[in-house]
Amino acid sequence: MMVKPEEENRARRARWLSLCRESVTDLFLPRGYPLSVAPSYMRFSQWQFLHQVTGSTTGVLSMQALLFAVGLGAGAIPVAAALNWVIKDGLGQLGGVLYAGIMSNRFDSDPKRFRFFSGVGTREIRTSGH
């Protein structure tokens, strides 16, 4: 019995979607989800995500208004400056997510130490002027 190419493609797509879903779950949700968290965890996470997105959007709009207020009106320079700022901020956020995904098992075992080091790192970055 031959497998039709259409069925084979459907099976391959289902495996790929399953792998993607598992990868996202492993990266963003706690180990053992949903049994390892409170029933309200997903609702909290959704609100937290919304908070982060709106906060980032507010920051971008504020930076755009600030650039306009200091005299960088229409043209390529303010767009380039805003784009540079957004990319820098976005790459920093992505790096944080990837780092947390890789190190998440260690976070569970010693959260105070990692919280301390993240605070020290954040303070150093802010005071270094970069």
SSE layout and pairing:
Layout: H1 5-28, H2 41-69, H3 76-109, H4 111-128
Can you describe this structure?
- It is a single chain.
- The protein is mostly helical and 130 residues long.
- It folds into two domains: 1-37; 52-128, no CATH class.
- The protein has four helices and no strands.
- The radius of gyration is 21 Å and the shape is extended.
- The N and C termini lie far apart (64 Å).
- The mean pLDDT is 79.
Head-to-tail CA distance between termini: 64 Å
Mean pLDDT: 79
Query: Low-confidence parts lasting 5 or more residues at pLDDT below 50?
Result: none
Q: What's the number of helices?
A: 4
Structural class: mainly alpha
The Rg value, from CA coordinates, equals 21 Å
Quick one: how many beta strands?
A: 0
Task: Sketch the topology as an H/E string, one letter per element.
Answer: HHHH
Strand content: under 5%
The proportion of residues forming helix, as a percent range, comes to over 70%
Summarize the main sheet: none
Q: What's the overall geometry?
A: extended
List keywords for this structure.
130 residues; mainly alpha; 2 domains
Provide a concise account of the structure shown.
The protein has helices at residues 5-28, 41-69, 76-109, 111-128. With 130 residues, the protein is mainly alpha-helical.
